[in-house]
């Protein structure tokens, strides 16, 4: 078999066989197929797309390019949740203890963040003492005992995807639905999930800028999962503005604690209940979505979910007293308000600009090598649809330096205030099964 023939076949809109896709991904992973041939192939896919069989075969070839996590030592159906990326997305911190409190095993393997804020690991490390350096055996034991644990990424998962994603990034081929879908799903499948709940974001702060593309991406990922025997569903949610109010690591931990107490931002709470009910049903812990939702609401009301968060934190060395007293979390030296320059209604908040402003404060990594400051970030005071009066604060900046002019400029740039009444943003557009 020759790679040039496979490129030609895809260029001419024909379908590749499983053997051909396996040959290509193996060769690309071991270096016998060079980057330039793989780039030409990615561009051919960008223009001609792939059939459902090709997408499933590409996904599994990438899964098989490296290690696969075996979670069979953990009892029950392991449901993983994945978000296609957003700003201030604190759902994992809420969902992990929340669904675990109903007996759904949450075996979370998590990475560090790149970009606007840290990943789930970074956020959890803002709890004093919390650590993720546990052995695999300890991880399995903790999930069996408490139903929830988090471990740092181990092993060499989906090296083909790592290489291909890097190549796509510099060849203008990231934005292809078959390539995004297979990239995300290969990582979830290699991480050992039995079932997957996807949160596909749409809007200014997301990969998918319009609802049609988001629906198409969601359908493609659900189809991959179902094709390879992983029950999969997707929720399509709004990312026209950051989720919740907090953007920043310790600030988001506090927001997650508030939400588990039933006192969090409405949009974060709603999205967690929507995603959580799907997870509970996929794990066979409830028969219907309505039943699952009621169980989750009850777990928050009764304090069971919050209790589960304490158990989880303490089991990994963390100081669980921060959950009753979040003032023990790292906090920044200074806070500054950003006053509105006019009266009106917030009509737009460019999520990406808010994310970048938080990163510049030190809440995120500009490159893999950057260190992050867990205490800094932004807390939005006004969201889309809110009425504002001139001089009222739009955002509180939590900073460890006094020079925040550039941050302030970016925040003004992110907000649009309109004179006319603006409806609050729709949060959940669709569910795809
Ligand atoms: N996230 C991924 O992991 N892969 C893509 O291709 C796009 C977003
Ligand atoms: Ca948030």
From TrEMBL:
A GO BP annotation: pyrimidine nucleobase metabolic process
Keywords, sorted A to Z: Glycosyltransferase, Metal-binding, Potassium, Transferase
Organism annotation: Thermaerobacillus caldiproteolyticus
Domain Pyrimidine nucleoside phosphorylase C-terminal stretches: 345-418
Keyword Transferase: yes
Coiled coil: none
Signal peptide residue numbers: none
Cofactor entry: K(+)
EC number annotated for this UniProt entry: 2.4.2.2
Functional description taken from the UniProt entry: Catalyzes phosphorolysis of the pyrimidine nucleosides uridine, thymidine and 2'-deoxyuridine with the formation of the corresponding pyrimidine base and ribose-1-phosphate.
Transferase as UniProt keyword: yes
Family: Belongs to the thymidine/pyrimidine-nucleoside phosphorylase family.
Assigned GO CC terms: cytosol
Enzyme class, broadest EC rank: transferase
Annotated SMART domains: PYNP_C
Name recorded for this polypeptide: Pyrimidine-nucleoside phosphorylase
Assembly, per entry: Homodimer.
């Amino acid at each position: 078999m020759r790679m040039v023939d496979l490129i030609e076949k895809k260029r001419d809109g024909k379908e590749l066989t499983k053997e051909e896709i396996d040959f290509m991904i193996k060769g690309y992973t071991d270096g016998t197929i060079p980057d330039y041939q793989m780039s030409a192939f990615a561009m051919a896919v960008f223009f001609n797309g792939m059939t459902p069989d090709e997408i499933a075969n590409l996904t599994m070839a990438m899964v098989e390019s490296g290690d696969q996590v075996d979670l069979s030592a953990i009892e029950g159906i392991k449901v993983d949740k994945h978000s296609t990326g957003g700003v201030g997305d604190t759902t994992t911190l809420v969902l992990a203890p929340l669904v675990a409190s109903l007996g759904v095993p949450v075996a979370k393997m998590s990475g560090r963040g790149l970009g606007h804020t840290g990943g789930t690991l970074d956020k959890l490390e803002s709890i004093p003492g919390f650590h993720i350096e546990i052995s695999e055996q300890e991880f399995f034991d903790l999930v069996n005992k408490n139903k929830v644990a988090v471990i740092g990424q181990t092993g060499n998962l989906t090296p083909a995807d790592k290489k291909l994603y890097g190549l796509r990034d510099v060849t203008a081929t990231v934005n292809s639905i078959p390539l995004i879908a297979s990239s995300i799903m290969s990582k979830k499948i290699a991480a050992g999930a039995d079932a997957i709940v996807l949160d596909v974001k749409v809007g200014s702060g997301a990969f998918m800028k319009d609802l049609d593309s988001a629906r198409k991406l969601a359908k493609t990922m659900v189809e991959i999962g179902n094709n390879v025997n992983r029950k999969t569903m997707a929720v399509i949610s709004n990312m026209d503005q950051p989720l919740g109010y907090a953007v920043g690591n310790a600030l988001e931990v506090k927001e997650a604690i508030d939400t588990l107490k039933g006192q969090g931002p409405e949009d974060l709470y709603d999205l967690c209940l929507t995603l959580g009910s799907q997870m509970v049903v996929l794990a066979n812990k409830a028969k219907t979505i309505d039943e699952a939702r009621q169980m989750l609401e009850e777990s928050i009301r009764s304090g069971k979910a919050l209790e589960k968060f304490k158990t989880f934190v303490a089991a990994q060395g963390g100081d669980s007293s921060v959950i009753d007293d979040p003032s023990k979390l790292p906090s920044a030296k200074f806070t500054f308000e950003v006053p509105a320059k006019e009266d009106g209604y917030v009509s737009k908040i460019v999520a990406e600009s808010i994310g970048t402003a938080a990163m510049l404060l030190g809440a995120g990594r500009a490159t893999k090598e950057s260190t992050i400051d867990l205490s800094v970030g932004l807390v939005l005071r006004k969201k889309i649809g809110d009425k504002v009066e001139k001089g009222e604060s739009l955002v509180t900046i939590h900073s460890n330096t006094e020079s925040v002019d550039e941050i302030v400029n970016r925040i003004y740039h992110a907000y649009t205030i309109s004179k006319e009444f603006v409806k609050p943003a729709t949060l959940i557009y669709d569910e795809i099964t």
